[in-house]
Structure to design on (96 residues):
């Protein structure tokens, strides 16, 4: 297993951690929005740092914006099949 950090490393915002399993499965832990990064904030939120289509599933640790804020931008890029979530989490889909 390998892990890459695409946020919340050396700062406390934009949490996105991608686990790469030996069989090619990609598991994304959180899909957070960067905040307070000055003039770079918008650019950092536009680029995930990885190919969203390489992610097999996503695990949301909790619903703070720095952990879930980019889910509405991520979902349309990957959602082509079955999804599961708690009712409260599924309402995020309405914003995509």
């Amino acid at each position: 297993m390998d892990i890459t950090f695409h946020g919340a490393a050396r700062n406390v915002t934009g949490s996105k951690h991608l686990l790469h399993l030996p069989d090619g499965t990609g598991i994304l832990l959180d899909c957070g929005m960067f905040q307070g990064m000055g003039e770079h904030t918008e650019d950092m939120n536009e680029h995930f740092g990885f190919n969203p289509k390489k992610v097999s599933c996503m695990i949301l640790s909790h619903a703070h914006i720095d952990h879930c804020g980019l889910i509405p931008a991520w979902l349309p890029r990957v959602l082509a099949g079955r999804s599961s979530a708690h009712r409260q989490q599924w309402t995020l889909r309405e914003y995509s």
